[in-house]
């Protein structure tokens, strides 16, 4: 199930539809805040867009939310 979702995100990224990818990841994170992969993909995209502080913020949220679930 997640493989198809990540392939969808990759296709959007390839088409440079970054706003759509970020919005989709925000929805996924909201629905499954304990799933670290969503945060990682979002942080990686933000890093690629040179939004380093935003990427760091996402990773910090990942640490907080995934460590609380453990």
Keywords:
single chain; 4 helices; 70 residues; 0% strand; mainly alpha
Reconstruct the topology from this structure.
Layout: H1 2-14, H2 18-31, H3 36-48, H4 52-69
- Please tell me what the overall shape is: globular
Q: State the separation between the terminal residues, measured CA to CA.
A: 23 Å
Quote the average pLDDT: 92
Largest sheet: none
Task: Summarize the structure in words.
Helices cover 83% and strands 0% of the residues. It is an all-alpha fold and 70 residues long. Helix 2 (18-31) runs antiparallel to helix 3 (36-48). It is globular. The two termini are 23 Å apart. The mean pLDDT is 92.
Summarize it.
This protein is an all-alpha fold and 70 residues long. The protein has helices at 2-14, 18-31, 36-48, 52-69.
């Amino acid at each position: 199930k997640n493989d198809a979702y990540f392939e969808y995100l990759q296709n959007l990224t390839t088409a440079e539809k970054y706003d759509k990818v970020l919005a989709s990841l925000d929805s996924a994170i909201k629905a499954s805040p304990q799933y670290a992969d969503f945060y990682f993909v979002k942080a990686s995209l933000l890093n690629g867009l040179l939004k380093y502080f935003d990427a760091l913020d996402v990773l910090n949220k990942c640490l907080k939310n995934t460590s609380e679930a453990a």
